[in-house]
User: Fold these one by one.
Assistant:
Number 1:
Amino acid sequence: MPELPEVETVARDLQRWVAGATITDATVRWERTIRHPQPPERFAAEIAGATIRRVSRRAKTVLLHLDDGRVMTVALRMTGALLVTPADAAPDPYVRVVFELADGRQLRYRDVRKFGRIGLWPGGGLRSVGGGRGARSRKVAEAGRRYRIGEVFSGHGPEPLQRGFTAARLAERLRGRSAKLKSLLLDQSFIAGVGNIYADEALWRARLHPLRTADTLDARDVRRLHRAVRQVLREGIANRGASFSDYVGADGEPGENAERLAVYRRTDQPCYRCGRPIRRIVVGQRSTHYCPHCQPEPVASEPA
DNA sequence: ACGCCTACCTGCTTGC
DNA sequence: TGCAAGCAGGTAGGCG
C-alpha cells in the first residue's frame, strides 16, 4: 500500500505526536507481525520502558529511534497503518500490535492483510543508514555484518529525494540494464520507495512507455525520468499521500493525492495532456497505466 | 540479471 | 440475491 510519500507522511506525523513518548507496554495480537530477529513472545518485554526519541523513514519503512539507541522498524507493506489514538478509542479487530504510551494514548499498528512487519534492532547499526551519503553503502554493509540490519536495508537502492540522487547517478544505474522501466522503478534495489502508483505517474510525466527498456533511453529521457520521479514523490508528500482502500496518515485521515493522479486507476478516462483514453496493461504481474499517445510504444531501433 | 511463479492475508468489486 | 473469481498500493524466496 503505502509508498514513499505515504510512509513519509506517517513518519512526519509520528515525529510530531509521539517523539518523546514512553512506551509502557505492548500487546502483540498477531505474532507474525513481529519479524526476526526479535522473538514475538519477548517483544513486549523488550520494548517496554523505551522512549521514542525520533521518527524517520528509509525506503518504505518507518524508523522509530529509541532513546537507548535501538531502532524499531515498521514496514507497512500493503495495508499497514500506524495510528495514535486516545486510550478509550473504539476497539478495532485489525489492530495487530498495541503500544501503550505513558501519557495514556495508544500507538496502534493496524494491518488488514497482515503483510507488514515490525522489527526491533540493536543500537548503532542504523545510524549510518538514515542520512549519510558517499561512503554510505560500505557503512551499511558493515552494519549488516555486525547487526544483521543488512537484512532490512542493505539491499535497497538510493533514496530518490536525497541530494545525492542526481540525473547522472540515475543514468549510471540505468547503464547496461535491459529491464523494462516499469519493473526497474518497482525494484527496491534500484531505487528505494517507488511503488506501483508513483511508477506509473512518473513514467507518464516523463512521457516514457512502461515497456521501454533502460538501455533505450538517451540522456534527455533520463533527465526527464529523474525529474519526474522526484516531482511525483514530492507532490505526493505535499498532499499527504494518495489514499485508496486502506492508507491513512497517523491521524487516521486519508491523503489527498489520489484525486491528483494522472494515470493510476484512470483506465479509459481521458489523458490530462492529450485527451485520449488511458490504457491499462499488466507488466511484471502489476497493473500498469499509461497514455498510448503521450508515451509511445517502444520500437526496436531507439537511440542507445 | 531477469522474468516468472508462489506465498503471505483479507476484503471489496465485478460478473454471471 | 448469491456466489465465485478477480483484484488490491509490497516483498521474499525459488526456479530456469
Number 2:
Amino acid sequence: MECERTAGSRPRADAAGDAAFDVFARACPSRATLEHVTGKWGSLTLTALHESGCRFNELRRRVDGVSEKMLSQTLHALERDGLVHREAQLVNPPRVDYRLTPLGHAVAERLLSLIGLVEERMPEVLSAREAYDGRRA
Amino acid sequence: MECERTAGSRPRADAAGDAAFDVFARACPSRATLEHVTGKWGSLTLTALHESGCRFNELRRRVDGVSEKMLSQTLHALERDGLVHREAQLVNPPRVDYRLTPLGHAVAERLLSLIGLVEERMPEVLSAREAYDGRRA
DNA sequence: CAGTATCCTGCAGGATACTG
DNA sequence: CAGTATCCTGCAGGATACTG
C-alpha cells in the first residue's frame, strides 16, 4: 500500500477533457486516514477509547471541549476507516457503545508512542523555544 | 511532562480579574508541538528531512505541493521546537541548509512507524469503508 | 440518550508581488 | 537563492435549535 504521501501531488489528468473530475480524489488514500488519526479530535477520541470503550455522552466528557457535531463527525470517520466499532442497542432511551477495533488499538498504540515521546522530551522543546525566541529578540 | 492533552481544557482562570489573560496559552504545550509534527506540511517536511538534510528549494521540490509561505512557516515552527536545525551560509547567492536534530530524527521515527502501520493496513481500511458505505446505500 | 440540521465566522493557507 | 509581505477566500468547526 505504498504510494506518494505528498499532499498536493496531483496526478496529471492524463485522460483529457475531464475538467470536472476531482484529481484530488486520486491522491493517496492513506493520507485521509492519517489525518483522521492525527487530527485534533481524532487523536483525542482514539486515545480516550484506547483506555476503554464507552457511550457517546461519556466520550463527550472524556474528550473535553469537543462539540456534539465534531464528536459525531469524528466517530463516523473513524468507524468508516475501520478503527472504531459502533454498537447500538435498540432500547429507549437509546444506548450506543463505541470501542476500538483491533486495528484501532494498533493505531492508537503507535500514536501514543509518538505522543509519549514528545511529552517526555518537552523540556528540550521548551528550551529550544527559548533559545529561538532569544535569537530574535 | 505529563498533562491533560484534552484540547479545549481551559484551566479555570482562578486568579480573578484577568479577563484579558489568554487561558489557552496555559493549555498543554505538547499539543502545539504535536500539531506541528502531525500536521499536513509538518509531517511531510519531517519525513522528507529524515532521509537527508537539504536546502530550501530542494525541500520545496520534495514536499510536493507546498507553497513558499507554508514551507517557510512550517520550518520556523519545527526549528523553534528544536526538531529542525537551520544553517545559513553568508554567501551570495544565499545558501541555507536544513536538517533534523537528534530529537527531530527520534520524532520522525515514531511518526514513520505510525504512517507505516496505516499504510500496511490500508487494505483493511478500504474494505471497512466499502462495508460502511454499503450499509448506508 | 444520541444524535442531525442550519447558520455563521475566523482564520489556515493559496495566489501574487516584492526583496536582500 | 531564500525568503517576506499582502490580499483574499473556502471551509473547518462553533453556536444554536430541533428530533427519533
